[in-house]
Structures are given as structure tokens and as C-alpha cells.
Write a structure and sequence with these properties.
This protein has 238 residues and is of the alpha+beta class. The chain contains 6 helices and 8 strands; from the N terminus they run H-H-H-E-E-E-E-E-E-H-E-E-H-H. Belongs to the cAMP-dependent kinase regulatory chain family.
Length: 238
């Protein structure tokens, strides 16, 4: 009897060993990692209104004049009304840089959007472990919006070549005022296109191209070519 029980015990152990060997369930993780902000989905249509208080960084009259001058040609601000634009200016803060300062680094999470007031900045992209300069900002422009709009890591490193000045806008304010407002206006244009009988037969991709055109700067009318040819020309700012 005792020998029989020992044999049953051996068989049970073998069976248990076989089950463990063929089990596909992974072992439980010992860590509960926080998801990176770049992995968190952001949908301006679904995201609730930001309940955080309005951000205001005090500025002198001289600073505000310089900031307005730096922001006057920034495309992302064109769709804002005067009140929204004023709130953006209130929330922006001055950043002074020195030569070789890294304003942002490729692969980092996005924290701020930057507008250039003065200074030259190299755009460096890491390829096969080697940093390559692929472009340059020369005393004007803006950068950093893609990581905030699409929840992706920084696509490039921005390095100051000399002393300069930037104006930063925090992630939360950028999303609340810029991303949501642009999405709202885009929906308005989409509804307009869908209400025009002549345009209902267009494919979705074609309607979206019209929406992109309507979202341009200082458009006062909309043209449809019925016949003939149209030559498209763009005037350079240089």
C-alpha cells in the first residue's frame, strides 16, 4: 500500500512538471511601470475641458511687445481669436539659451512648444548612432509641436549655435488652446463641405484637401474651377 502511494505521488509530480513545462502563461511582472506620456492617446474631440487654472507668467510691457512680434507669423496661432491669442501670450515664458544648449533632445517626451525670438538653432537627427544636421532655424520660426499634438517622442534635437531667446508654451495650455481650437475649426469646415451639394460627390480624401485649404491664412473666398486651366504660384518671403 505504501509503495503504491509513493508511485502515485511520483506520477502526480511528473504530471505537474509536464503542465508547467507546457504552460504558455508568462510569469507575473514584479514591476508596475507608468506608461510614458507619449504612449497615452490624446483625442481633442473626446478630451474633456481642462479644469486646471489659467497659466499666467508675468511680463513687462517690453517683454510682451517682443513676444507679440515673435508670434505674429506663427501659423499655429492664426486660427485663434484675440482672446485665445492673449491667453497664449499670458502663458508663454521666456527661455534664454547659450551656445551648445540643447533645447530639446530626440527621443524625449514633449513638454513645451517653442517660438524663436532670436538666435540660430541646428536641427540634429540621430541616424545609425551619428548626429546629422538636417536643417537650421535662423532667428525665426517655431518647433516642438509634433510631440505635443501626436503624443510621439521628440523627432530631433535642437541645439543653440549662439546666445538666443525663446518663448515656451506648456503642454497643457498648448493642447487646450491650440490643438482643440484647430480641431474645432476643422470640424466646422468639414460640416460646411458636407452641406454643399456640389461637393457631396467627392471622395473623403478630396473633401479633406478642401478642408486643409479652407484652414489657410486670410482666405476671403473659395473658388471652384469649372473649365480652363489654373496656374498656381507662391510668392517667396525672401
Amino acid at each position: 500500500m505504501r509503495k503504491k502511494k509513493e508511485e502515485e505521488g511520483v506520477q502526480t509530480c511528473r504530471a505537474l512538471r509536464v503542465v508547467l513545462m507546457h504552460s504558455t502563461a508568462p510569469p507575473p511582472s514584479r514591476f508596475n511601470r507608468r506608461v510614458s506620456v507619449c504612449a497615452e492617446a490624446f483625442n481633442p474631440d473626446e478630451d474633456e475641458e481642462d479644469s486646471e487654472p489659467r497659466v499666467v507668467h508675468p511680463k513687462t510691457d517690453e517683454q510682451r511687445c517682443r513676444l507679440q512680434e515673435a508670434c505674429k507669423d506663427i501659423l499655429l496661432f492664426k486660427a485663434l481669436d484675440q482672446e485665445q491669442f492673449s491667453e497664449v501670450l499670458d502663458a508663454m515664458f521666456e527661455v534664454l539659451v547659450k551656445p551648445q544648449d540643447h533645447v530639446i533632445d530626440q527621443g524625449d517626451d514633449g513638454d513645451n512648444f517653442y517660438v524663436i525670438e532670436r538666435g540660430v538653432y541646428d536641427i540634429v537627427v540621430l541616424k545609425d548612432g551619428v548626429g546629422c544636421c538636417v536643417g537650421q532655424y535662423d532667428n525665426k520660426g517655431s518647433f516642438g509641436e509634433l510631440a505635443l499634438m501626436y503624443n510621439t517622442p521628440r523627432a530631433a534635437t535642437i541645439i543653440a549655435k549662439d546666445e538666443g531667446a525663446l518663448w515656451g508654451l506648456d503642454r497643457a495650455t498648448f493642447r487646450r488652446l491650440i490643438v482643440k481650437n484647430n480641431a474645432k475649426k476643422r470640424r466646422m469646415y468639414e460640416c460646411f463641405i458636407e452641406s454643399v451639394p456640389l461637393l457631396k460627390s467627392l471622395e473623403l480624401s478630396e473633401r479633406m484637401k478642401i478642408v486643409d485649404v479652407l484652414g489657410g491664412d486670410k482666405a476671403d473666398c473659395f473658388y471652384i474651377v469649372e473649365s480652363g486651366e489654373v496656374k498656381i504660384m507662391m510668392k517667396s518671403k525672401e
